[in-house]
Structures are given as C-alpha cells and as structure tokens.
Design brief:
Structural class: alpha/beta
Protein name: DHHA1 domain protein
CATH architecture of the largest domain: Alpha-Beta Complex
Strand content: 15-25%
Helix content: 25-40%
Bound molecules: guanosine-5'-monophosphate, manganese (II) ion
Low-confidence stretches: none
Pfam family, one: DHHA1
Distance between the termini: 37 Å
Number of helices: 13
GO molecular function, one term: nucleic acid binding
CATH superfamily of the largest domain: inorganic pyrophosphatase (n-terminal core)
CATH class of the largest domain: Alpha Beta
Organism: Segatella buccae ATCC 33574
Mean pLDDT: 97
Radius of gyration: 20 Å
InterPro entries: DDH_dom, DHH_sf, DHHA1_dom, Oligoribo/pAp-PDE_c-di-AMP_PDE
Length: 346
Amino acid sequence: MQINILSESEAATLRELIAASERIVICGHKSPDGDAIGSSLGWAAYLRSLGKSPDIVMPDAMPDFLHWLPNSEKVVRHDKRTAEVSRMLQQADLLFCLDFNDPGRVEDMQADVVASPARKVMIDHHLDPNFPDTALAVSHPEMSSTSEMVFRVVWQLGGFEGLDRQWAAPIYCGMMTDTGGFTYNSTNPEIYFIISQLLTKGIDKDKIYRNVFNNYSSWAVRLRGYMMCQKLNVFEDLHASYYAMTRTELRDFHFIRGDAEGLVNEPLRIKGLKLSISLREDTERDNLVLVSVRSVDDFPANEVAARFFNGGGHVNAAGGKLHCSISEAEQVARKAIRAFADRLKA
Ligand code: 5GP
Ligand code: MN
C-alpha cells in the first residue's frame, strides 16, 4: 500500500517551510464544504502538534451541519471580519490553500490571498491546477478528497502517532462528505486503510455520518420532498434531469444554508439517469443562480459545468453559476441537456 504522495524533495520543502514559519494561515474555498473545512481543521491540528499556532480563514460561512467539528468556531470568515482576515494574510509568512487550485475560487478574498507576502502551499485534488507563485503545489486529482491528501501528508511526515481524535474527526468528515458517504469516488482500497487508521483514534464514524447527513430541520426535509415531487423535470429518453429552486420557494420553506446539500444527487436514484442539474436562485443577490451538476460513470459533469455554467469540478461532481434570472437559467439547463443528447442517450 502506497500512502506517501510527496516526493522526497517535496517532503523536505514542506518540512522546511513549516519549520521556518511563525505566522501560518490556512484557507479554503468560497462556500466551504466538509472537505475544505475538514482538511483545514485537520491540517491545523497537525501544525499545532508541531508547536505552531495557525489561523484558519474562509471566504464565507460553512454549513451548519459542520458546526459540531472540534475547533470549527475558530474559523474566521472573510465576509464577516474582512479587515482582520486581510491583516492575517498580510502578516502571514506561510499560507496553506486547501481544497482549491485556482485563487479565483476564494472570490472576494482573492485579492488578499494574491497580495499576501506569505509563501504559498497548495494542497488540492481538483483537475487542472492554475495557481501561480506557489512555493509548493501538491495536486492529486485521483484522490477522493483534500482531507485524504492531508492524511497522507501527515502520515508521510511522521505526524500520525502524535495526533488524536481532534485531528481524525475532521479528516474522516472531509473524506466522507466528498464521497457522498463513500458512495462515489471511493473505490481505491487505500481509502479503507486510511479509515481503519482514523478509527484507531477513537472517532465514532456512525455519529459523524448522522451529524452531517441526518441533521435537517423539518422544513428542509419538506423542501426536498417538494422539489422532487413538484419541480423535477426528467428527460426520460436523455437520462437527464433538472430542477430549479426559486427564491420565493426557498423563503416559503425557511431555507438556510445547507438545506439543499446533496439534493442534486437524489434524481440519480432514477434507474439509468446519468445527469442531474440543480439550479438555485440566490436568496440575497439578484440575477445569481447557483448550479450543481452530478453525473455517473464517465459522463462528464465538469464539461457540462464548464460549457454552460461558468464552472467546473470533477467528472461526477461539478458546479458553477449563472448571472441571469431563474427562468433563463432553466433554459440554459435544457440547452445543456440537449447539447449532450448523443452522449446521454448512449
Ligand atoms: P457543489 O455542487 O457541491 O457546489 O460543487 C461540486 C464540486 O464542483 C465542487 O467540489 C467543486 O469541485 C466544483 N465546483 C463548484 N462550483 C465551481 C465553480 O464555480 N468553478 C469550478 N471550477 N468548480 C466548481
Ligand atoms: Mn474537496
């Protein structure tokens, strides 16, 4: 079993960078998910075990279903405490960018990240990295998650023995969320070796599952049922579907961040369905539609997201956004499905 992912020289560089740095900042991407938060908290726990005191910053809020994670309350939000985060980035001597591979993915925080004099280390599993000026860029698109990469790096650097549940829980959480509870992107046997090692730290994996996936309000469950019952458009012959959530509907169902999490996967339970598109009108900003795209097997969700929704992502899980009304976005979704008709029918 090959757990190590760094070359000898990369490992040496990383060790030197950490040893030489006093003001370390860790950041994840906009709308941080379980993997961005999990990998950041896990990496922070490792750095603390080395005697460092890293700060963790994110562009905006994490979903409520991650608030149980130890130390999640220490994460500083750029949208809420902009000046403080700018100062941290300005004063940092080492900046870890986790779970994104393009400075554009931190959106409003991008200028501060780019301007930071810190040496930058990217650790990420998305395709096609485009991150200028890194002291070290560790890119492994074949990995399930950045959290898995953090496990491997910590293992390789010899940190595993000295770490406890506070490190293992966020790492497990990030691996679990990025694989839909180990239902996709999770066939590599090494993942299960890693899980077995994390379990030795005393994490309760069943509880972590419940904390994350069985944490809806009754409103959220009703919204999800309503979308599937009333709003799902299925193109049976094309093995594709889309649905659109309007701002009015979101208000009617008392929508809060995270309520729609994973809903885009639900249509994939239809036998033979290959492509599911979710459109959600932003609740605050006008003419902004948030798009999630999911697919199965080798049908490329990321190509759909890149060509039609100004986004990208992984083969089976991608996203993007449109600057238009929700009804215009529905037209784009229909156009996207038609454009891929040949490959969807096959
Ligand atoms: P989600 O549907 O959960 O928001 O996003 C699924 C995946 O799509 C994310 O893990 C991320 O890799 C990718 N993704 C989402 N939005 C964007 C985007 O605007 N640009 C790119 N390049 N990838 C995105
Ligand atoms: Mn990820």
